[in-house]
Amino acid sequence: MQVNLEEAARSYPNNDLVPITFTEDEAKGLSQPHGDALVVELEIAKHRVMRNLIDGGSSADILFTRAFSQLKLPDKTLKPVKHPLRGFSGNEVMPVGRITLKVVFGTAPCQSAVGVNFLVVDSPSVYNTIIGRETLHALRAVASTYHMLLKFPTPNGIGVVDGAQTVSRETYELATAARSRRLESLSTKRRSPGKCLQVGTVDHVDYGIITGAIQLGNLDPRDDFYEQRGAPVEDLEEVQFSPDEPGKTFKIGRLLCEPLRAKMIEFLRQHKDDFAWTHHDIPGIDPAVMVHSLAVDPKARPVKQKRRSFNPERYAAINAEVGKLVEA
């Protein structure tokens, strides 16, 4: 496949006409056939940032607020935005602001740095950013999801950004699982009073990697009425510390790959004694750390509540738990 850039080159007379081609050999090593999105790693504001979606269907470049926070950018750098974003489903979201950041594509010497005008959006997402048509056109870039590659001309030749197929699939699985949990929570909300679970946890602070819930196009305007709460972003696997003690277990994510999974299990088992299994395992803690204090006005008139009645089994359970606390 060859894309002719002759027409585009007329707008950039300082650059030589260089054909951008993709060959079948460049698709080797990928799991085929596939329908994976092109997700890449980029340098944004001098930080290596993963999980950036290359989306030629987006008219805007999006930076999600969790990534904005992890890049440690001051809020005062945001410029106001007057118009909302609209997803393909017709739902609208108002950006927090706009910011221009330097983004480096490719590796030296065939790399290009552009100032990307990001719209900062406060919405949970499995991606850190969405790179849309405006930036792709500024780079004169051509993306091939089949080859999992983004190519663009530079004065030193064709620059290449490799997509990460494994990360793309993991990201899709996270989004699908989180979406299912949200729908289940919404169903529970309709059946009985309660709070809707909305996923959006931070996975890797150094690089601003975000794992979370839905994509921009699936925004539900009712989400504004529900409380955001943390939740696992993937299914968990329960592992025993020892076959001799089946009651002592810990949980790890099912998406952990070998050999990291084996190392994590071995490390936790070696430090089994660091976990507190009963109240007797945590003696010597200052009561100020563990005692709850009620913000009650000392001038308020106390009111004595009626004593509640419990069945004998519940009384026994309550007395047993209180006894454990007293002994500890």
Q: So how many helices? A: 7
Ends distance: 72 Å
Strand content bin: 25-35%
- Main beta-sheet strand count, sense and barrel state: 6 strands, mixed, barrel
Structural class: alpha+beta
**Spatial ordering of strands, largest sheet:** 3-4-10-5-9-8
Q: Level of helix content?
A: 10-25%
Unreliably modeled segments: 1-14, 189-227
Q: Would you list the SSEs in sequence order as H and E? A: EHEEEEHEEEEEHEEEHEEEEHHH
Mean pLDDT: 76
Please report the total strand number as a whole number: 17
Indicate the overall shape. elongated
- Report Rg: 26 Å
Question: Helices, strands, pairings?
Answer:
Blueprint: E1 2-3, H1 6-10, E2 20-21, E3 39-44, E4 47-54, E5 61-64, H2 65-70, E6 85-86, E7 92-93, E8 97-107, E9 110-121, E10 129-131, H3 133-139, E11 142-144, E12 149-154, E13 157-162, H4 165-191, E14 200-204, E15 209-212, E16 236-242, E17 245-253, H5 260-270, H6 287-290, H7 312-327
Parallel strand pairs: 4-10, 5-9
Antiparallel strand pairs: 1-2, 3-4, 3-8, 5-10, 6-7, 8-9, 11-12, 12-13, 14-15, 16-17
Question: How is this structure best described in words?
Answer:
The chain has 328 residues and is α+β, with helices and mostly antiparallel strands. 23% of the residues lie in helices and 28% in strands. It contains 7 helices and 17 strands. The strands form 6 sheets. Strands 3-4-10-5-9-8 form a 6-stranded mixed beta barrel. The radius of gyration is 26 Å and the shape is elongated.
Short description:
This protein has 328 residues and is an alpha+beta fold.
What distinguishing features does this structure have?
328 residues; 3-stranded antiparallel sheet; 7 helices; alpha+beta; 6-stranded mixed barrel
